[in-house]
Amino acid sequence: MKWNTRSALYGAALLTSVNLFAQVVGFVYRVCLARLIGAEGIGLLSLVTPVHSVLLSLIVSGLAVAVSRLSAGYAALGNTLAVRQLVHRALFVFLLLWCAVALPVILFSDGISVALLGDARTRTGLLLLLPCLLLTGIENIHKNHFYGLKEIHPPAVSEVLENLVRTGAVLTLLICLRPSHEEYAIGLVVLGMVICEIVSASLLRFLYRRAQRGRRAAGPGLPRRRMLSDMAAVAVPFALSGLLSNLIGAAGSVMIPARLMASGLTADEALSSYGVVVGMTMPLLSLPLAFAVGLALVMIPRLSEDLALQRFSSIRRRAARALTLATAALLPSMGLLALAGPNLARLLFRQAAAGFYIPPLALGTVFACYHSILNSLLSALGLQTRAAASAVFAGLLQLVLTWLGVAQPRLGIGGFVYAFLIASALGALLSALDLRRFLRAHAD
Asked: CA 427 to CA 433: how far, in whole Å?
């Protein structure tokens, strides 16, 4: 059987394989990391990484989605010159945004680490996040350019290499330098991430330039103001949604240890309890999400192309196929993890509490995955504002329920688990209703 390398099925299969490999490597990486820096170190790292997510959502995520979606739309209309202009202008906008956030982080890193993150030991890792963020942005703009043109091999190669280099760099630094203080350990972890991003961004930039030499630019292009307007229409709602969602997540990461202390735990016990669930238990559940991630990356440019050409019957078929394939992949894998996960987590992480909350977290992860896929479909169809609204609603609901539940001695960290389950289910329901309304409005 000969595969059509530009088909949705081939793309989903390849990206699923790549993401599954990345999840397996990432899982092994987290197991080794947990053993090298301990539950308290994982808790500290869980305070730093939300800052990266917040800044990434603010200055990168919206631009990356805009590049993928607009590349597909411009290419469908034969305007390949506009596709080339899009990448250059997206990079320019990103560099301006990076400078705007890097300066205050450098100037106020002490205050951010102590007042916002609640632990001065996060400062070194916080500063090292800035070069990591710069390289991640360059990488993601080029990667989503390839996704938009349905050229999935360059980002697939980059993803594999990125995960291998990150795992090798971080673990080598920790093993060879053996940091005796948690601040230095977190700094070494982020430094390993920087090394990984240097390799990935350089590779994708090289592959992009090589592809441009073999591709003839056609079409009239677009005026700068028109293209910036197109980019803003896609990127701003997505960026604001991602920013609010990640701010909510970052607030939760700071709030949860404090609320655990309010329930009667000491500071070290609270940080360790949070590290066990967020840094050990939840990563185990991320393995089956490889298919969902690959599916979303493949479907966005295809639905954007269908929308540009007003092919609504094709949109309905693709959306139904995406949800059917997601169901077939998610439910069996999460069911298996709910049954076998508790013993597996305790064996791998050597923590008695590591697998305690796997069954409710597995169900919550299923709903979160549906929510993510549905929001990707909505964004591809120009409904990014509706997708943003449901994401922010789910995040705020989870934050409120977490605040109320975690401080209860009977629930403790379980309050976070059940808040995640309820918020994910309601968020997925809202996005499903929005997609249904769109499809009904454009029925033949």
From this structure: 10
Q: What is the pLDDT of residues 230-250, one digit of tens each?
A: 888 888 877 877 777 767 776
95 belongs to a structural domain: yes
CA atoms within 13 A on the CB side of 53: 17
Q: How many domains does the chain have?
A: 1
Quickly state the pLDDT bin for 2 (edges 50, 70, 90).
very low
Q: Are 46 and 260 in contact (CB under 8 A)?
A: no
Indicate whether 289 belongs to any domain.
yes
Considering the domain boundaries, does residue 1 fall inside one? no
Q: Is residue 440's pLDDT more than 70?
A: yes
Q: Whole-angstrom Cα distance, residue 86 to residue 141?
A: 10
Residue type, 253: S
Q: Which amino acid is present at 370?
A: Y
Distance CA 206, CA 85 (A): 17
Nearest to 367 by CA among 327, 332, 396: 327
Q: What band does 221 get if pLDDT is binned at 50, 70 and 90?
A: confident
- Whether 2 maps to a domain, the answer reads no
Tally Cβ neighbours within 10 Å of residue 268: 12
Q: CA–CA separation, 64 vs 81, rounded Å?
A: 18
CA Rg value for the chain: 21
**Amino acid in the structure at residue 82:** A
Taking the whole predicted model, whether its pTM rises above 0.90 is answered as no
Compute, in degrees rounded to 10, the torsion defined by CA atoms 318, 324, 329, 334.
130
Distances (CA, A) of 392 to 153, 239, 404: 33, 12, 18
CA torsion angle for 275, 277, 282, 283 (degrees, to 10)? 30
> Distance between CA 301 and CA 306 in Å, rounded?
9
pLDDT digits (tens, 9 = 90+) for 144-198: 898 888 788 888 888 889 889 999 999 999 999 888 787 788 889 889 999 999 9
Q: Which domain holds residue 71?
A: 8-441
**CA angle (244 as vertex; 243, 247 as ends), nearest 5:** 85
